[in-house]
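Chapter summary example.
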Amino acid sequence: MPKIKTHKATAKRFKITKKNKIIHRKAGQDHFNASESGRVTRSKRRDILVKDTETRVIKQLIPYN
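The structure predicted for these 65 residues follows.
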């Protein structure tokens, strides 16, 4: 069996924690944020967990991280 290559775009966007959970940044932080409320702006600063249905696919794309 050949080695599985890491999908580099996925590896840059997602991180696997020590407890085997996957986190990523919230989308939509680049521009047009002045009209949003402070609550929305603060919630965008936090990393969020990936849903359980998507974790299997992401772990296949990042095999050894």
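To summarize the output: Helices lie at 8-13, 38-44, 52-61.
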